[in-house]
Design goal:
With 337 residues, this protein is an alpha/beta fold. It folds into 2 domains: 7-119 and 294-330, ATPase, nucleotide binding domain (Nucleotidyltransferase, domain 5, 2-Layer Sandwich); 130-291, Nucleotidyltransferase, domain 5, CATH 3.30.420.40. It contains 10 helices and 14 strands. It has helices at residues 47-69, 88-105, 114-126, 162-172, 186-191, 212-223, 228-254, 269-282, 291-294, 298-310, and strands at residues 7-12, 17-24, 34-37, 78-84, 109-113, 132-136, 141-147, 150-156, 180-181, 184-185, 204-205, 208-209, 258-262, 285-288. The strands form 4 sheets. Strands 3-2-1-4-5 form a 5-stranded mixed β-sheet, sandwiched between helices. A 5-stranded mixed β-sheet has the order 8-7-6-13-14, with helices on both faces. Helix 3 (114-126) crosses helix 10. The protein is globular, with a radius of gyration of 20 Å. It binds adenosine-5'-diphosphate (ADP) and magnesium ion. Adenosine-5'-diphosphate binds at residues 15-16, 137-140, 163, 166-167, 179-180, 183-185, 263-265, 267-268, 295-296.
C-alpha cells in the first residue's frame, strides 16, 4: 500500500543498470525498486549494447515499478531521471522515457544529477547530517562535502575510478566476471592470505589519487610470476590506503566528524573496516549506505526527484538534455538553505 504524499517516479540509466522506482516524501519513502542490469558477455560495458538492452527492458521495468508501488502514472506528482554524468547512449534511454512520460501525463520533469543522487540516498538511509562524503563506484572516485549550497570536491581520481580499477584488474587476472560474489569483490576475496610486495606505486598527489600506474604495475607483476594473492593484496592495500589518506585529510581540513560512504565500492566490508579504524582514531563516525542502495538504482533518482520537486527545480522536457560530464559541484542544492 502506498502512503499519501508527493510521489515521484525515478529512472536510472547512466551505465549498466536500468532502474526504476517510486519514492514519496512520506515514510517509508521508497515504495518500489525495479532493476534490469546489463551484463556484457565479455570485457567492460559497451555503451551502445547497454542502451539497446535498456530499450528492450524499459517498458517492463517502468510498469513493474508502478505496479509494485500501487500507483498509476496519473497519480504521480513528478517524473525524474538521471541526466548525467554517464554514458551517452545509456543516459538517452532514461531521459527519453522520462521526457515522454512527463510530457504525455503533464507531470513536472526533474533532471537529476546521478552523483548527487548517490549522496542523497545515503543521507536518507543513514541519517548522516553533515558528512565528508566518499563516493566510490565503477565510474567515480571522489571525496566531497557540503559547502553552502553545493557539494564541493575535496579530492578525486586523476584517471580511472576505484571500482573500474578493481574490475579491470580482476578481469585481466582471470578472476572475474562476476566481480562480486557473496557480497565480496573478487579483489577482496583474492587478497585474503596475500602478502605485501614492495615497490608498487602509491600515488597520491595533493588531495587526488591515481590508479592507472598501479594497474599497469600489477599486471606486469602477474606476468613476472608473482603469486596472484600477493598481487591482489598489494594492489588492494595501496588503493584503499590512498582513499583513506585523502579522506582523513578532508576530515582534518573541513573539521567534520562524520564519513558517509556511497557508491558500489562502499559495499566492500574490507574497505569499511579500514574507514572505521581511521575514523575511530579521529573521533569520527562512519556511515555506509546499505549495499542494495550503494550500487546504481532507481530509488536514489526518485528520492532526489522528491527533494527537487519540493524546491521547484523543474525542467521543461524540451530543455532537458543529457550531460555525459556533469560534476557533482555544478549542481545547486536548494535543500541546504
Ligand atoms: N561488495 C562490493 N565490494 C567492492 N566493490 C563492489 C561491491 N559491490 C559492487 N562493487 C563495485 O561497485 C561498482 C559499481 O558501482 P555503481 O555505483 O553501480 O557504479 P557506477 O554508477 O559507477 O557504474 C563496480 O566497480 C563493482 O565492482
Ligand atoms: Mg553510480
Amino acid at each position: 500500500m502506498r502512503g499519501p504524499g508527493t510521489l515521484v517516479l525515478g529512472i536510472e540509466s547512466t551505465a549498466h543498470t536500468f532502474g526504476v522506482a517510486v519514492a514519496s516524501d512520506k515514510e517509508p519513502h521508497i515504495l518500489s525498486d525495479e532493476r534490469h542490469k546489463y551484463v556484457p558477455e565479455k570485457g567492460g560495458i559497451h555503451p551502445l549494447e547497454a542502451s539497446l538492452s535498456f530499450m528492450k527492458h524499459a517498458p517492463t521495468v517502468i510498469r513493474k515499478a508502478l505496479e509494485e508501488a500501487g500507483v498509476t502514472p496519473r497519480e504521480l506528482d513528478g517524473v525524474a531521471a538521471a541526466f548525467g554524468p554517464g554514458l551517452g547512449p545509456c543516459l538517452r534511454v532514461g531521459a527519453t522515457a522520462a521526457r515522454a512520460l512527463a510530457a504525455y501525463y503533464h507531470k513536472p520533469l526533474l533532471r537529476v544529477n546521478h552523483a548527487v543522487a548517490h549522496v542523497e540516498i545515503g543521507r536518507l538511509l543513514t541519517g548522516a547530517r553533515d558528512p565528508v562524503i566518499v563516493y566510490l563506484s565503477g565510474g567515480n572516485t571522489l571525496i566531497a562535502a557540503q559547502v553552502g549550497r553545493r557539494y564541493r570536491v575535496f579530492g578525486e581520481t586523476l584517471d580511472v575510478a576505484l571500482g573500474n580499477f578493481m574490475d579491470h584488474f580482476t578481469r585481466e587476472a582471470g578472476l572475474a566476471p562476476p566481480y562480486v560474489v557473496g557480497g565480496l569483490h573478487q579483489l577482496d576475496r583474492c587478497a585474503e592470505g596475500g602478502k605485501l610486495i614492495p615497490g608498487f606505486p602509491y600515488i597520491v598527489k595533493g588531495q587526488d589519487v591515481s590508479f592507472s600506474g598501479l594497474l599497469t604495475h600489477a599486471l606486469r607483476a602477474l606476468k613476472a610470476g608473482h603469486r596472484l594473492e600477493d598481487v591482489c593484496y598489494t594492489v588492494r592495500e595501496i588503493a584503499y590506503s590512498a582513499i583513506i589518506e585523502i579522506t582523513e585529510r578532508a576530515l582534518a581540513h573541513t573539521g567534520k566528524n562524520e564519513v558517509l560512504l556511497v557508491g558500489g565500492v562502499a559495499a566492500s566490508p574490507v574497505l569499511r573496516k579500514k574507514f572505521e579504524v581511521m575514523a575511530a582514531e579521529r573521533g569520527a563516525t562512519v556511515k555506509v549506505v546499505p549495499p542494495k542502495y550503494a550500487v546504481d538504482n532507481g530509488a536514489m533518482i526518485a528520492w532526489t526527484g522528491v527533494l527537487m520537486l519540493r524546491h521547484g527545480m523543474i525542467t521543461p522536457p524540451e530543455k532537458a538534455y543529457v550531460r555525459q560530464r556533469w560534476r557533482i559541484d555544478e549542481f545547486e542544492l536548494p535543500w541546504f538553505t
